[in-house]
Amino acid sequence: MQSANMLLRRIVRSSVLPFATQHGMKKDLFPLSRTLSLSLCLTQDKSCEPSEKLDLDEWKKVMKSGFQEEVSEVVSEPKELSSLAAARETLEMWRLAGRAVPENISEEQLKTFMECPSKSAKKKYLKYLHLRELHKKNEKRKMDEKRERRLEAQDQASKTDETKKGSFMCLWSRTMDKAYNWRAAQSMIFGQPLVFDMSYEKEMSVREVSNTVRQIVMSESSNRRSVDPFHIHFCNFKDDSLYHREFIKNYREAWDKLLITVTDQCYTEIFPKDKLIYLTADSPNVMKTFDHDKIYIVGSMVDRSIKTGVSLARAKRLGLETAALPLEKYLLWSTGAKNLTLDQMMHILLTLKDTADWKKALEFVPKRKYCGFVNKPVKELKKTLDLINTLKLGKGREKVEKQFAKNYPKR
């Protein structure tokens, strides 16, 4: 008999109780268990005497205690779920009423919303989530638009490349390359030499050397496309140096086909010293005119990274003449150092060689460095410069006047 009661209790706990709690059958649970116990006893133990009685009240207490333990664990979750569902319905009602409510909200955010102490706090929290959701949508929209613009630009570039790859354009480019190469070949025989001093590798970092080589590549390209190109010399050039590796990285197979002179000798060993002029911004001598019989030397370095006067000191050690571009004579210099990039120097020298016009040549100086060209009387220039420097500096007017007197002496 006891074994039958234990078996019935296990069955009720494992199957009947969860089923009853899910379908709301709490009230009918105990009559059902009583019926099951009686029927099970009658079927399993027919030899029992009819006079033997079951203690149904005690059985009811045992079943009730087990039922409370099981139901307390099962019912706690539906209460929480029902409260979350009610909160979601509240949010939906507020959304339909036109309030600032986020479209998507997580369970953690919903629990935080439920824990808000007042209705105004709940509104503020929902407004915060709504604004954050709008911000994310705007960011995503901007990223999508940016991606679409980039794809459109790539499509247009591919279309233009396809048009350039046409038969006529290919023929035209090959013809122009032949013409440019022919001019460069003639310059190696009849052209005016232009020297790039490649002896500054140890005084620059790897990044600065890469930047310098990039500027020299642009200089060589503009020289090759000019009407009367220079004969470019790379002097003090060492094989397997950092300069060499960067040039191979930029030119690849075309490095061995360049129509320039590359040598490890110094320029003083190739050309006479009386014809050499070292162009440096630190020189006290101002270049007045372009001399077609001279050989100009340009230091292959990034001036910003090197101490002032390095190229000037090198030229003096070698006993060479130095010169600086007349920037202050033709330009109202504003701010910044008077050092120019190598490709800018190449454009200026090519323009001077072709036209001998300083104003036209100095147009290649970056416009952020000067206010304009000197084309007014000195008195008006003095007023303009005083006004500019007074607005910029405020104090130090005497220093400005001394600098102006030095730059623009009385004629």
Automatic annotation (TrEMBL):
UniProt superkingdom: Eukaryota
Compartments reported by the entry: Mitochondrion
Protein name: tRNA methyltransferase 10 homolog C
Gene Ontology CC terms: mitochondrion; nucleoplasm
Cross-referenced InterPro entries: MT_TRM10-typ, MT_TRM10-typ_sf, Trm10_C_MTase_dom, tRNA_m1G_MeTrfase_euk
EC number in record: 2.1.1.218, 2.1.1.221
Molecular function terms from GO: tRNA (adenine(9)-N1)-methyltransferase activity; tRNA (guanosine(9)-N1)-methyltransferase activity; tRNA binding
UniProt keyword annotations, A-Z: Coiled coil, Methyltransferase, Mitochondrion, S-adenosyl-L-methionine, Transferase, Transit peptide, tRNA processing
Biased composition (Basic and acidic residues): 141-160
UniProt key word Coiled coil: yes
Gene Ontology biological process terms, A to Z: methylation; mitochondrial tRNA 5'-end processing; positive regulation of mitochondrial translation
Domain SAM-dependent MTase TRM10-type: 180-372
Class of enzymatic activity (EC top level): transferase
Catalytic activity: an adenosine in mRNA + S-adenosyl-L-methionine = an N(1)-methyladenosine in mRNA + S-adenosyl-L-homocysteine + H(+); guanosine(9) in tRNA + S-adenosyl-L-methionine = N(1)-methylguanosine(9) in tRNA + S-adenosyl-L-homocysteine + H(+); adenosine(9) in tRNA + S-adenosyl-L-methionine = N(1)-methyladenosine(9) in tRNA + S-adenosyl-L-homocysteine + H(+)
Organism of origin: Motacilla alba (White wagtail)
Chain intervals for the UniProt region annotation (Disordered): 137-160
